[in-house]
Amino acid sequence: MKKLLLTIVIIVGLHLPTVSAGPIDVQPVGMKTEDVAKIRNIILRQLDAFREDDAEKAFSFAAPKIQKIFKTPEIFLHMVRNSYRSVYRPQSFGFRGTQRIDGNIVQPLAVIGPTGMSETALYIMEEQPDGTWKIGACIMAQEPGKNT
Questions:
Q1: Looking at 21-30, 55-64, 78-87, which range is the least confident one?
Q2: pTM confidence score
Q3: How far is residue 49 from each of residues 42, 58, 73, 113, 128, measured CA to CA in Å?
Q4: What is the pLDDT of residues 45-70, one digit of tens each?
Q5: Cα 118 to Cα 67, 75, 135, distances in angstroms
Q6: Per-residue pLDDT tens over the stretch 106-137
Q7: Average pLDDT for residues 6-27, to the nearest whole number?
Q8: Is 87 exposed, middle or buried (0-12, 13-18, 19+ CB in 10 A)?
């Protein structure tokens, strides 16, 4: 995981964020356009659930290992409110190109948080046995040159 995080941080540092909800522009080799669309839809639906303070719905998009860690939707939402303010209440956001890093599917999301700070949310996505996608992790990275 440490190697994955370092690789992600390096890649984020090499790209300037774009905030737009444009078409699916980049996808990993061998990944279907439909899967990228499904991944982005899962993230959008979770963002909607955060906006509505719907803990059950937001929790339903988390991968089983995340659900096991946080145990209840209320605990999960409390954690998001306190530690992920930029995705909990973004002013604006836009998808960047989906990537495969060390075998993981990573969907970057450029966000401007409630305080106006630009960050990138790196969603690590997990395909489930039934073919659906769940959010396995979200790592927040600030734009290069910004203080953390």
A1: 21-30
A2: 0.79
A3: 11, 5, 11, 16, 21
A4: 999 999 999 999 999 999 999 999 99
A5: 28, 26, 21
A6: 999 999 999 999 999 999 999 999 999 999 99
A7: 43
A8: buried
In order of 47, 115, 147, the CA distances from 9 in angstroms are 23, 22, 14
- Which residue carries 């046995």 as its tokens? 129
Which domains, from first to last, does the chain contain? Answer: 28-142 (3.10.450.50)
